[in-house]
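I have a small job for you when you get a moment. Can you supply me with one protein entry, sequence and fold together? It will help me judge whether the discrete encoding reads sensibly. Write everything out right here, beneath this request:
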Amino acid sequence: MKFRVSNFMSFGYREDKDGNVVPTEYHLYAGAAEKHKERIVKYGKRKVLNFSAIYGANASGKTNLAIAMNVGRDIVVNSIKELGVKNYYCRNKKENLNKPTMFEYEFTVKETCYAYGFSVNLKEEKIISEWLYRLSDDKQDVVFERVVCNNKYFFNEEIFKEPENIKQFEYFIQDANRIDTTLLIYEINRRKLKEEDFIIFNDVYDWFKRKLMVLYPQTKVASSFKRFSVNNERLIELLKYFDTGITNYKMKELKESAFRQYFMDDEELDRILPDRPYKGVLKYGRSLFEINKTKDNIQAKKLLFQHGSDESLYEYGEESDGTQRLIELLDVILNESEDTVFVIDELDRSFHPQMTKKFVETFLDLAKMRNTQLIITTHESTLMDLSLLRRDEIWFAEKDKDNSTKLYTLERFKIRYDKVINKDYLAGRYGAVPVFKDFDYLWGGKK
């Protein structure tokens, strides 16, 4: 994947001498590193990596990169007016309030590479422009380009086999230009078109909705929980492998009356659960429930864990913070879906350093068998080991003089493969580390 962003949070707005926007760029394309060539996936001449770790001081912009990827995703699958991101422009310059914000993604669906992007005005919550290209080794083929103002657009009629679909697609673009709060990709998907001519647009939308997953430290369980709904021996072995102490689990079925006893009263439960049929996960107190609410009743199951010969069963909330964090991230390891990109902000939150390293090692081993990518932000320097990671898999986020974030890889420094880089990193030789004043300076001493 490649991601480019401009005028969003700590990612500034810049133009070249010709007035073209120069975005901040991040990618998982392989560089010149020679180590671990087995981790390179080739799409024609394109060489893609499965993994990347992003380092940087607190407030350097690491989390902002994850947020940018996620907000761009949310704009694709929702209306921009539903997101509350009016003030997410880069505020290091007042003039940026009226500048466009740009998001662009390069990704793969069924071995076809796409570049899809759009620009928006966050202040006005409006779409400005949108584009989709199909990428090959030596060129990019325009699928469509559109600019909302003045209803300007272009699309490649050759992608349509049925002549009537050309006129229909032209109508879709004109309609999207009138709406200006949702993207064309969203509008096409909303119509649930199944014709072959529209598969390319549905594939792009589905990648954002189902394949790009951003997980924050506060993310709870996410899609991992569904794996406990069936007797999953692989999941149990994984929990043992990571030394959680868990040796088995149980989904205990609860009658509705027993389930309701967990809450103060029916009014509290009504406030928590949606006022409609609902199927999903509910965490309440220490308990984690699988809920199936229909018009007539509520079916509930509670997740409980067993530890060796211990005769008690334990709630999800009774497990350590590290074990809970691992459970929340299990889908990253167990997911077998192709073309998936996971972004984990602060992977090492609540993890022992050895757990963080083992998690990454496990992903890298499994990634050899599937087309999945993992992007993490972290402070864990034990990962910064050239026997484990390639130079182009290690990125840095650092604040520039104007307080905007710049991104770069370890490849910039052309270091030897036998170098102990984590010590050099902590010593500040690659940048992207905090710089502290002398303590005496706080009390009026010399600077």
In short: The mean pLDDT is 91. The longest strand covers residues 112-121. The two ends are 44 Å apart (CA to CA). The first helix runs from residue 62 to 77.
